Amino acid sequence: MIKFLDLKKQYNEIRLEIDQAIQNVINDSAFVGGNYVANFEQAFAAYNQVKCCVGVANGTDALEIALESLDLPKASEIIVPANSFIASSESITRCGHRVVFCDCDSRNYTLSVESLKSKITKKTKAIIAVHLYGHPCDMDAINDIAKLFKIKVIEDCAQAHGAIYRGKKVGSIGTIGAFSFYPGKNLGAYGDAGAITTNDEDLAKKCKMLANHGRIEKYNHEFEGRNSRLDGVQAAILSTKLKHLDVWNQKRIKIADNYIEGLKGIKSIILPKREAWALAVYHLFVIRTNRRDELQKYLKEKNIETGIHYPIALPKLKAYEYLNQAKENLFANEVDKTLLSLPIGEHLTEKDCDLVIKEVGAFLK
After folding, report:
1. Backbone torsions φ then ψ of 231, nearest 5 degrees
2. What burial class does residue 357 get, using C-beta atoms within 10 Å of its C-beta: 0-12 exposed, 13-18 middle, 19+ buried?
3. Got the DSSP string for 110-176?
4. On the CB side of 243, how many CA atoms lie within 13 Å of its CA?
5. Which of 142, 183, 137 shows the shortest CA–CA distance to 160?
6. How far is 172 from 224, CA to CA, in rounded Å?
7. Pairing outcome for strands 285-288 and 339-342
């Protein structure tokens, strides 16, 4: 079986480090807050080339808290790409704002700058730039638009830990960044966890207070917040795994390179494009084919696991019927039935990769 994801194999490779990290937290009874959380926040801020990092309970909370910290006018319009996980959009609605979907780029599936321009109105107050599948958005173009219209940029980095845009780590380029450490991410915890990154120290303080009941000091609540804290066990695990992230990402890039080289001659599939200005870290390797469902079934019969990200474009979900964007002429509304994610990750061997290429080719040729 060639697994789509193999967290057990990853754990076994660093078992001693992980077990010791967890034991240290238990020995110190540092379950909420404390040095393990602070150490990870410092390490992750340094890794991402930002001044501040605030650990939170999960990636969705990271987006919501980041949005809330910006103090946008109620019912602001916030633009988000139509091809993403629902956390990117539901965070907008849950903060009391209005979702506006723009299209995604047909080459790399990140936010389409041209579509973004067409969606801006007087009510637009922010953009959520989703670095989808591990490929950075065109942040210079997005920031130029944001500056022109005086709107904020939130980077959704849930699938892009370690990705680089023109020499800058994602999460360091916009107003504020949000990360998920869901177990299957490039940098994953052993449960839910998330983080917010920013170079704005005042925003970081606001986020920290929002995530901890509106306080910095115990019982001194300056406003109502919520309970969304990164716990000590997850922080210790993430600190341990962060040391391996670049090596794991390089393995993903190598596999992606092999896929691109091995599948480039097959006319019935479209491969993802990597822009010259991007270091993509391939959280997912997504191909397009009109025979997606047949191919997925065939690969399953050959003991090759695949995924679909995402089978229904966000505007077509029942949750967003009220927006009336399901029938809009968006690339994302058409492409969702052709997307297929091939297995990728540091768990794969070169032999595994060659077999995937062979079987995809055998079916489609």
Report:
1. -90, 165
2. middle
3. SB-HHHHHHH--TTEEEEEEE-GGGPPP-HHHHHHHHHHHT-EEEEE-TT-TT-EETTEETTSSSSE
4. 10
5. 137
6. 28
7. antiparallel
Which two structure tokens, joined as six digits, stand for 59? 């990636």
Residues 89, 102: Cα–Cα separation, whole Å = 11
The β-bridge relationship of strands 176-180 and 194-198 is: antiparallel
The answer to whether the Cα torsion of 45, 272, 138, 77 is positive or negative is: negative
Token pair, residue 182, equals: 């869901």
Q: Classify 81 as helix, strand or coil.
A: strand
- Amino acid 76 reads S
Is 111 in contact with 130 (CB distance < 8 Å)? Answer: yes
Reduced to 3 DSSP states, what percent helix, strand and coil does the chain have, rounded to the nearest 5?
40, 15, 40
Q: Nearest 5°: CA angle at 364, between 132 and 2?
A: 60
Q: Give strand pairing partners of 325.
A: none
pLDDT in tens, 235-284: 999 999 999 999 999 999 999 999 999 999 999 999 999 999 999 999 99
In angstroms, what is the C-alpha Rg of the chain?
20
What does DSSP assign to residue 227?
B
Beta strand residue intervals within 105-147, DSSP E: 124-130
Tokens of 254: 């190598």
Q: Does residue 47 have a cis bond before it (omega within 30 degrees)? A: no
Give residue for tokens 């990360």: 179
The conformation of residue 316, written as its DSSP 8-state character, comes to G
Segment 276-325, tens digit of pLDDT: 999 999 999 999 999 999 999 999 999 999 999 999 999 999 999 999 99
Q: How many CB atoms lie within 10 A of CB 223?
A: 10
* 179, containing H or E segment: strand 176-180
Q: How many residues appear in the chain? A: 365
C-alpha to C-alpha distance for 254 and 302, rounded to whole angstroms? 23
Q: Note the pTM of the prediction, 2 decimals.
A: 0.97
